[in-house]
Write the structure tokens for this entry.
Amino acid sequence: LAKTTQPISMDSYEGQEVNITCSHNNIATNDYITWYQQFPSQGPRFIIQGYKTKVTNEVASLFIPADRKSSTLSLPRVSLSDTAVYYCLVGELIYRRNRDDKIIFGKGTRLHILP
Amino acid sequence: DADVTQTPRNRITKTGKRIMLECSQTKGHDRMYWYRQDPGLGLRLIYYSFDVKDINKGEISDGYSVSRQAQAKFSLSLESAIPNQTALYFCATSDDTGQVYGYTFGSGTRLTVV
């Protein structure tokens, strides 16, 4: 499984765009990049997933350069309610019955939005 | 109703006691997982199950056991609880089709061992 590195914490202000970068230098050809969000005392929830270039949904955008060794989660115009821990995960699609097919959550990035 | 339900939500138990945390899901997923979360350590995988007859150890399985009673139910047991098992425990599910939407987590069980 590809190891990921992301900042431990970040602060930002309401209304700003926030970019959280994740490094995954040994990403494999079949690996996808997935981001999860976790609010205090809740389980993580899926935000966005991508393989290359750019993916956008109603919550965020995910930018992946051509070499795929890093990715950037972009949250537009954040609000106080975006304060959470954000996890970057890298791994294969979960459709294969592979004993090693499990995703490991790291420590994530603790994002604190200030008023 | 929640897709993944964990019971109890909170539990305080004494050292040496046996305790079971339960998880049930209505998503129809084959795969289920138990994670543990400690402050500053992120989520760590305890056990996972790909179907009723397929159970596997994760990163930190020592001191824990699991039972997959049915596709929808996956229980985690602490045979003899110890204080360093105090943590927030999460159950999660995922399917094994070509979908890419990942994991669905429960709301967690906060366990305190005194």
User: Anything to note?
Assistant: The beta strands of chain A are 9-13, 18-23, 32-38, 45-50, 53-56, 61-64, 70-75, 84-91, 109-114. The first strand of chain A starts at residue 9 and ends at 13. The mean pLDDT of chain A is 88. DSSP finds no helices and nine strands in chain A.
